[in-house]
Amino acid sequence: MKTMDIDAIPGEKWFPKETQFIDDMQEYWGDWGVSSEVDKLRAVLMRRPGKEIEKFDAKEVRFSEAPVDIELMRMQHDAVANIYRDHGVAVHYVEEQREDRPNAVFCRDLMLMTPEGAIISRPGMSARRGEERYVAQALAKLGVPIIKTINGDGIFEGANAMWVDRETCVISTGSRCNRSGYDQVAEELRRMGVSNILHMQQPYSNIHIDGLMNTASHDAVLVHASQVPYDVLNVLKKKGYKILEAQSTTEVRSTFACNFVALEPGLVVMPEGNPRTQALLEDNGIKVIPVDVSEILKGRGAIHCITAYLKRG
After folding, report:
1. Which of 125, 146, 200, 259 is the most core-located residue (most Cβ within 10 A)?
2. pLDDT tens-place string over residues 70-96
3. In angstroms, what is the C-alpha Rg of the chain?
4. What is the percentage of the chain residues whose pLDDT exceeds 90?
């Protein structure tokens, strides 16, 4: 009996493009990515105060009891955005937002930009939950890759993370970031080569890192010394950072002296009304652009809070 000779099914002769995600970023997504708090700022995401600040319960949303001058708040927000533009920064906006979320102006809390894309936050406060949806919507429209959305029982806000360098990031836990949120962010960062993740326990009296610590250059960090753990500052010190201790608790807590944005190493935009801290920075070679954000401060946030980084370096 003759056996039929059946041709073998050929292979596909197709092989995957075996590159790292970061290698594909420019070609398929665009010029995005952050792994520093001080490298040249190129692009940011902001929310210009909209209808959400026109009517709200200040106590419920954790604003100051002092009435907000709505138009002045918008003008001050525009002034910060214009400083960014004057220094070559592309300013993008979250155009849509819930009308019952006045804290949405504080975009930093709603995402964390990494070298490979954005991690979408899951806010801790019920009065903020849901703002992140519209940040995700804005990022998708821009073409920014979203690599993670905090899920399950995780809580995390973008200001609970601070980049030190490409391999090092501080993540704080507290009322705005629980261990589940911390673990989710840490896992994604490790996946992209961040080998040194520093855990910072957030004090009971504070919610975000940028209220206590902020880098002004590659070798200078401003801190509220009594509130920042030794282990975190010891790592920064060993990396060559000079520890600049804020001299006024009033300036740190009331006028948000630490809540500045570096436009580039050694040049920062800082809330006006912090003379002692400004002098400390300037005495250590940091150039300061002070700007009036008095109405924004009534939301218990400042310049760093309203600015979500999309591209540095």
Report:
1. 259
2. 999 999 999 999 999 999 999 999 999
3. 22
4. 97
* pLDDT tens profile 219-241: 999 999 999 999 999 999 999 99
**Residue ranges of the chain whose pLDDT lies below 50:** none
CATH architecture of 30-312: 5-stranded Propeller (3.75)
d(CA 213, CA 259): 8
Q: Where are the domains of the chain?
A: 30-312
User: How many angstroms from the chain centroid is the CA of residue 249?
Assistant: 23
